[in-house]
Fold this protein.
Amino acid sequence: PFDAPSKGSSLLDVYRRNWPRAGAVLGMAIGGATALAGRGKIHNLRALSAMNLVALLVHQYEEYEDPGYFPGQFNRGVFKSSQPRNYPLNTHTAMCINTVVAYPVYALPVLFPKVKWLGIGPVLFGMAQAIGHGIVFPAVSRSKYSPGFLASIFLHVPVGLAYLTALKRQGPVVRSQWHMAIAYTVAFATLGVGAPNVIFRDKHSPHAFTEAQMGRFAVDAAGDESTEHAPK
């Protein structure tokens, strides 16, 4: 996610260009460390669900803005699209998934903290993002990194562990609650994330991603992979 050092550049030069990003990563690490340090001491499920919602917003920013090339990795690297700017994922689909669907899913446990399965669902999905962005997407797209991993490992995982610990301390979670939570998570992944990608895919869609959001997965008219572009 950071600008790589060029020939003749010093570590100071690299840091001068990347200190805002370094600060953002440090902020995520501090947030995750705080959640882990308070594990077993923080009992407010509403507050932890709110932290998980914040983690989602950071995650989305990392995917689409800085470094922001997840759309290119998804379309070209994962689905081998010959027109990754707008197919199969396009900006309209990304907006629908990340705002119309994801925002309510992550906000509902803040509004209704006593409904346990509502809180467990987004926690499980958020923690699973660390596997997706840390292993699956890099492996399939033959990449070293997938935007969204830092937010997943530094925020979603620690906050999720803190949430599950707090939940356990409030009393046993009956099996039916776990079943509902898992079903809710699967429904979110399939109906809320997968289905829109199928429904809204359109090779003639005008809703294209930017060159920066393609990163090294940008292709020219002949379908040849171009060089990687630095995040804006």
Remarks:
- Helices lie at 11-37, 45-64, 70-78, 91-111, 116-141, 149-169, 175-199, 211-214.
